[in-house]
Amino acid sequence: MSLDKKKVDENTYVIHPEYKHKFRPGPTRDIIKDVLQTKLEKATYSMETTQQLTKQVADDIKDRLKELNLARYKIVVQVSIGEQKGQGIRMGTRCFWDGDTDSYASETYSNESLFCVATAYGVYLY
User: Fold this and answer.
1) Are 84 and 110 a contacting pair, CB within 8 Å?
2) Which of 4, 52, 59, 99 has the largest CB neighbor count within 10 A?
3) CA geometry: angle at 95 spanning 62 and 60, to 5°?
4) C-alpha distances in Å from residue 125, one per residue of 38, 54, 57, 119
5) Smallest Cα–Cα separation from 24: which of 14, 15, 32, 36?
């Protein structure tokens, strides 16, 4: 085993991130909003292509959030896209986590053809 690998795997006994390295909903929401507008601005709903579009949007959000370099955070992104037909939608989530270190951000987007709800969760790994 290489020395570098062993050093990364060692327990640091850090149970809370520094204040400046916490998962922040505000900047996360801005990233989600930017990705949704960029990817879905000219998109139209199609049952055949929506599955791939959903995966692309989720991957783009996750990649952008990883650029924030939040050490020891597990980033989970959930994206739902549906056809816009004037209906209402209500989504909920329930999590068991540490309120001091873990958080989430959610953003919605809609155009004449589709709606999208994207949520990103930041869970600190002890």
Assistant:
1) yes
2) 59
3) 10
4) 31, 27, 25, 19
5) 32
